[in-house]
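User: I'm putting together notes for a lab meeting next week and I want to include a structural view of one of the chains we've been expressing. I don't have a solved structure, so I'd like a prediction I can at least talk through. The sequence is below, exactly as it appears in our construct file.
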Amino acid sequence: MHPQLAAAQAPEVVLLPLTPAWVEAVVAVEQTAYTHPWSRRHFHDTLAAGHHARLLVARAASEWPQGGECAPGDELIGYYVAMRGVDEVHLLNITVAPAHQRRGWGRLLLDAFALWARGEAAQCAWLEVRASNARAQAVYEAHGYRRMGLRRGYYPAARGEREDAVVMCLPLASSSPEPGA
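Assistant: Thanks for the context. Below is the predicted structure for the 181-residue chain, given as structure tokens.
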């Protein structure tokens, strides 16, 4: 294939808002990524509540529909859902499709989230992560998140049991909370 033709067909990676047209693709990724995934209703409720939700999508450079809708050949790499609070934001869900993990896409989503959070004048960006998910905790810590505490029995686990969540905060301003404060 001619190099210019190959470049013209190479996908671009874009950040798009979550829209109803994307919910089925997001649910499909969610179900492959987690043992206890969010439901379709969670994502529709996210839209209804006006939460900040963004998708990372590989899209053919020639395909650009209007309004963040799906285009033929789009591939969902990952997404995040966040909620505004008073002087803070909360990362409710961040997911990279299993086929795209360990390629830096999660870090890119975290960067996009932090940029949005700073634009919201948040003092801190909060999240919870499963206590057993050491890989995710290491990624968050590398991005500047600090461990702030533990929520006992926060997540559903196997056989009807519960798993603790590590609560983490990314300080975004000088008055952000310190661990143990």
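A couple of points you could mention at the meeting. The longest strand covers residues 146-156. The chain has five helices and seven strands.

User: Perfect, that's what I needed.
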